[in-house]
Amino acid sequence: MKRACVIGWPIEHSRSPLIHGYWLAQHGIDGSYTKVAVAPDDVAQFLRTLPEQGFVGCNVTVPHKEIAFSIAEEVEEAARVVGAANTLWLEGDRLFATNTDTYGYMTYLSHVVPDWLAHDGPVCILGAGGAARAIVYGFLETGVEEVRVFNRTRERAEAIADQFGPRVKVFDWDNRSDASRDACVLVNTTAVGLKGNGSLGIDFAGFNPDCVVSDIVYVPLETQLIADAKSAGLRTVDGLGMLLHQAVPGFERWFGVRPQVTPELRKRIIADIEG
Ligand code: ATR
C-alpha cells in the first residue's frame, strides 16, 4: 500500500485528505492519504525520515513550505522561483520537491476562461507573498507583457519585481482600483476576504468589460471581490479550482494515475466548506 500525507501546523483545516481520498476511491488504488500535525521544530526530522515512515511523499502547507524547500535534495524550477515547496516525493531515497500553485492557478484560469488573454491589458496582482510569486511566474511564463503588483507593504512587491525583471511593475496599493481598470486579469492573492474578513475595496466602475477577476480565497466560495465583479458584469474565477488542480501533480507522482478534477469532487469540497 502506498502512503502519502499532508503536513502543517495546525493541519485540522486541510481539505487535501478529502481530495486525495476521493481520487484513491475513484481509481480503486490501494493507498492512503492522511493529515499529520508536525510542529515547526520537527519538520526537518519528519521529512528526512519519510522513507522509514513508509511514505512515498507528502504535501506541505503553512508554515512549513519554506523549510520543505530548503530540505529537499532536488528542487524543480516551479519551487525555486517561489522559494517554497508544497509537494514532495521520493525517487529512491532522494527527496524531490516542487510547487504546484502555478500549475493549479493557471490550469483553472484557462479552464474557466480559455480566452483570458484575448485583450492585451496588464495582469494586476494584489499581494506579494508566496502565492503572488507563483502566480506572477505563471503569467510571465505564458508570455504576458506586463504584470502589475500592488501590495500593502511596497517593499515585498519590489522584491518580486527585482526577481522577475522589467515586465513586473510595482504600483501603489492605494491606487489599486484606478491602476487596474485596463487589466485583462485581476487576481487577489492576499487573505483579505477569507471568511468574510475585510474588503479589498476595488471599485469596478470603468473597468475594461473583458477583464477577468479571480480570487485565490475559496472560503466563502463567492468572496466580496467576486460578488462585486459579478455585479459589475465581469467574468470571475473562484479560488476553489486552484486548490483542486494544484493537487493533481502530487497524486500522479505518488500513485501513478493522473486524476481528474470532476464536478462531483468540486461538489464534495463545496459541501465540506458550507457544512
Ligand atoms: P502567501 O504565502 O499565502 O501568499 P503571505 O506571504 O503571508 O502568504 O502573504 C500574504 C499577503 O496578503 C501579503 O501580500 C500581505 O500584505 P503585506 O505584505 O503588506 O503583509 C497581504 N495581506 C494580508 N492581510 C492584508 C490586509 N489586511 N490588507 C492588505 N493586504 C493584506
From TrEMBL:
Catalytic-site annotation from UniProt: 65 (proton acceptor)
InterPro entries associated with the record: Aminoacid_DH-like_N_sf, NAD(P)-bd_dom_sf, SDH_C, Shikimate_DH, Shikimate_DH-bd_N, Shikimate_DH_fam, Shikm_DH/Glu-tRNA_Rdtase
Ranges for domain SDH C-terminal: 239-261
Domain of life of the native organism: Bacteria
EC number: 1.1.1.25
Biological processes annotated in GO: amino acid biosynthetic process; aromatic amino acid family biosynthetic process; chorismate biosynthetic process; shikimate metabolic process
Domain Quinate/shikimate 5-dehydrogenase/glutamyl-tRNA reductase per the UniProt entry, residue ranges: 122-187
Cellular component terms per the entry's GO annotation: cytosol
Keyword Protein biosynthesis: no
GO molecular function list: NADP binding; shikimate 3-dehydrogenase (NADP+) activity
Binding annotation for shikimate: 14-16, 61, 86, 101, 218, 246
Reactions this protein catalyses: shikimate + NADP(+) = 3-dehydroshikimate + NADPH + H(+)
Keyword annotations of the record: Amino-acid biosynthesis, Aromatic amino acid biosynthesis, NADP, Oxidoreductase
Pathway annotation from the record: Metabolic intermediate biosynthesis; chorismate biosynthesis; chorismate from D-erythrose 4-phosphate and phosphoenolpyruvate: step 4/7
HAMAP family in the record: Shikimate_DH_AroE (MF_00222)
Protein family: Belongs to the shikimate dehydrogenase family.
Role according to the record: Involved in the biosynthesis of the chorismate, which leads to the biosynthesis of aromatic amino acids. Catalyzes the reversible NADPH linked reduction of 3-dehydroshikimate (DHSA) to yield shikimate (SA).
Alphabetical list of NCBIfam families matching this protein: aroE, PRK00258.1-4
Subunit structure, as described in the record: Homodimer.
UniProt protein name: Shikimate dehydrogenase (NADP(+))
Native species: Hyphomicrobium sulfonivorans
